[in-house]
Every structure is written in structure tokens, then in C-alpha cells.
Design brief:
The structure is a single chain. By secondary structure, this protein is of the alpha+beta class. The protein has helices spanning 23-42, 47-50, 65-79, 95-102, 150-153, 155-164, 211-216, 218-224, 226-248, 289-297, 335-354, 378-386, 396-406, 416-428, 481-496, 507-515, 527-535, 539-542; strands at residues 111-127, 131-137, 143-149, 170-179, 185-196, 252-253, 259-260, 272-275, 280-284, 302-310, 322-331, 358-360, 366-368, 374-377, 436-442, 458-466, 469-476, 520-526. An eight-stranded mixed sheet has the order 6-10-11-18-17-16-15-14, with helices on both faces. A five-stranded mixed beta barrel has the order 1-2-3-5-4. Strand 2 and strand 3 (143-149) form a beta hairpin. Helix 13 packs parallel to helix 14. The relative contact order is 0.09.
Amino acid sequence: MSETSETTERPQDQEPGEEGMNTIQRAQMLLDQDNAIAARVESGASPEEAIDSSNKEFGPQAHPEQVQIRVAKRAQMLKDGLEPYPVHLDVTETINQVRDRYEGKLEPGQETEDVVGIAGRVLFLRNGGGLCFVQLSSGDGTRIQGMVSKREIGADSLKRFKQLVDLGDHLYLRGRVVSSKTGELSVFATEWDIAAKALRPMPALHKDLTEEQRTRKPYLAMIADEKARDMVRHRSAAVSSLRRTFDGHDFMEVETPMLQTVHGGAAARPFTTHMNAFDIDLFLRIAPELFLKRCLVGGIERVFEINRDFRNEGADGTHAPEFTMLEAYQAYGTYDTIGDLTKELIQNAAKDAFGSMEVTLLDGQKYDFGGEWKQISMYESLSESLGEEITPETGKDHLRAIADKLGLEEEPAENHGKLVEHLWEHFWQDKLYEPTFVRDFPVETSPLVKAHRTKKGVVEKWDLYVRGFELATGYSELNDPVVQRQRFVEQAKMASQGDVEAMDIDEDFLEALGVGMPPAGGMGMGIDRLLIALTGASIRETITFPLVKPLA
């Protein structure tokens, strides 16, 4: 069988089915098969002789032939006193370091006396008579050639190399740095060891992985696809940049509870769970907002958190049930000052992760985060689209009539604010390509936001749109405990009328506000969405390990 194709088998979490085998039974069966192969090797069989390619003994759910061969090679190593998973190897240089030091500095055929110890994953293997060639890859995809010869390591060691090393293994080589006759930078091995024996074959590197492989087995994507590795690096660089920008503005990073007795801080449906120790139901965090505001009350006046949030809602190209959120609050700020900070955070992330505020998306298009960003008013832009003035006083019935005329579906627990946003999204949401702050939202949909200083019926809130989707939101934060209680009560009434996204009443938070929270500006931004904006990828591609539905 080819070593470059991935086998297909039933999932590890197999439920009882037509084969009548559950997860534990199958795991035990595979362990029995491993032990049977090892026993045959111990009795003197070669790895090829120790396997049962037809799987007559263990059935169709047992290890496929390629895995059996590798299990047998592992057993052969143990029989010969070789460790297939050694604790330590004398790695003296990374593949990157060797390349940086010698790349382009050796003539074809030139050899040095410089000895290095390197390790990497085997991506290519050519076993000749007395000389074998192997290509090793570091985790970031940097590659180097290894040369293993009978002259340097002896006939017995070369024979073991040919017998035991497979594509996908992690391999250690110690030897001299040379340039091959064709000019390929190489390590001419004087010794070798398997650093970790791979029991499963590699995916075909010359073919694109399927979406199924990418989402269910992202480790394969990281091995085979440079774009997948780049996404992990870009994400790390962007998050590091965010922290540096906050540090430059004297913000403090904190951690807030993931399990909460009252869900709040956003309009979203929560996940519920149960804590046995206290015998109480809890909610998985939908937002850290109410706890971060408690920090403001306690005197931590510039605070941020990068956290995992959970929302029991739909999944699409920009939504995931588990995601990473950034939230930040600045005492004595407003939605204007927090907007300036958000712009700086995003622009710095683009520069630090990609070297420029003009980024190249996956489809090859350029997108510029530089310059001044556009600002529009929700009510004014909606009025412009409808050709009539819409204000906070416009009645719900009139707005519903407009929505019906446009063919928009009715929203649960509709009110003035929800209808205004629903209509606005119909006209504007996917049309805001350049970075745009949409400002001044209806009060009904923004229960944690301070009323506008001059516009009755609206609040000081903006949403930032990039390439047609919402990237971030910012507020002048509500800090009046009496008004906050009123907003919470209105939310609770909406929940009783069927609004599953409405907030609950959080008396502990109201008590904290009563101690006194300074006026503040606050913002929230999805880290996954930031990567969508910077790369043009889908949300699943930006999340290293996306949640997927188990196979039936």
C-alpha cells in the first residue's frame, strides 16, 4: 500500500452499531491486536510477517495494514533494545539555525567539519543501495536534507534505518553539515535515532486536504498545509500585539469567572451546566463585561481580558459556539476614546502580524486598515436608505409595516430597537467594506450602555464593521445603578416574552454599581473575527481546534 495516502476507518467514538462494538470494546480489541503483533515479533517474525493484512482475527474495525506494519516496527525496536519514544536526544541546532548559518555559503559538493544534531519530521524518504536520502521538516515547515550512508554508519545501522524509518516519523540525525553534489544543504549523518515513531501514515502532501480533514484533524492540516501553520503564527502574533498595545496604555490584564450564576454582559443564549459540589445550575460565560466593570469599581481603572466565551447559538462563517473575546474598559473614557484605542489595537495587530496595515487576504485581494476610518449614524443611514426619517420616536407598528413590505421575517419579542437594527442590517450590513464605525444605537437593544449626551432615545454605542461583518463594539458604559436596574427589569420582561437572548437581573452587579463605578469607555472584539478581518479566512480556519459534530 502507498505510504502517502491516509486510510479511512470508523471513528474512535464508535457507538454500538451493526458490528455490536462500543468504544471500550473497540479500544480493547485494538490493544489486543497490538499485543498480538508484538508477540509474533518477539517470537522471531519480521514486521512484515507479524501482521494480518486481511484482519481475519480482529475484523474490519481493526488496524489497517499500514498501521499494523508500523506497530510491528515499534515492537521490533523494543525487541532490539531501541527506544521508539526516547526521553532525550542531543539536539544542538534547529533546522532553521542550520539553514540560517549555511544557506548559500557552500559550493556544490563542499563539506565542513561542523557537527550538528538536528531533529524533524520525515516528509520524504529515498532508500538507495548504500546511500539513503531523507527530508526533515521543523514545526514551521523549514526543511533540510539528511544523508545516511553505509560508509558513515555501517551496514547494520543502515539496514535498520531502511527497515524501521517511515514517512511521518520524527527522526534525529547527528552529522557534518555538507552541500550535496546538486547543491542541497544537508546533514551527513554519523548516527541516527527515531525520536518518535509515527503509527499512522501521513496525508498525501501533494494533495489539498479535505474540509473534513482540516476541521476534524487540524494537526494534519498543520503538518501538510503552510496556510494552516501560518494561521496559528498570525493569531499568536496578533494576540501578542494586542497585549503590547494595552501595556503601552497602562492597562492591566485580569481573569474573570467562566462559570457564572447569572448570565450577562451580552445579548446571547447561554450554555447551562450543573455544579455537583454546590448542587446549583450555572451558565458558561457569554461575556466578561459585568466582572470587568466590578474591577473598575474596585479601582483597577484600565483593565482588559482575553477570554473564552460560549454562546449556544448558530454556527456559520463568522460565528462559533466557543470563541475568544477581548474586552477592555477605561475609566474616564467614552465610546470616542475607546474607539480610538480599538483602531490602534487593530492597526498595530496588522503591522505586527503581517508587517503592514495593508494586508493580503487569502483570495489575493489587498485590504487597507490604515488612514482615518469612516463613521456613520445608524438612524441617519437607515433614514437615507428608506427615503424617510426614522427617529427613536418612530412607532413600532410603522417599523413593522416597513419590515413586512421588505419581506423581513418577524423577530422574537420585537420592539422599536430590534426593528430599527433589523431594518438597518437589511440595507447596510454587508455593504460596509472599508472600516466603518456605526454609531448611536437604540436604547432597547443596549441595556449596558449610557444614554447619548444630546440625542434622546439612543445610546453611545458603536459597532465596527470591516468587509461587511461586525468586528468590534464599543460603549460609553452605563454606571447609574438606578437606570441599570430599570434596564435589567426591561430585559427580564423581554425574556419572559420569549427573547432567549435577553439578560437576567444581576443583583450582585447592581450592588457593585451602587458602590460607585467611574464613567468609562468599554469595547469588545472577537479574536477569531480579528483574524477573519486580517486574513479573509472563515472562522473555522482561524480557530486552531474548532468544535465539530461527532460522526454518527
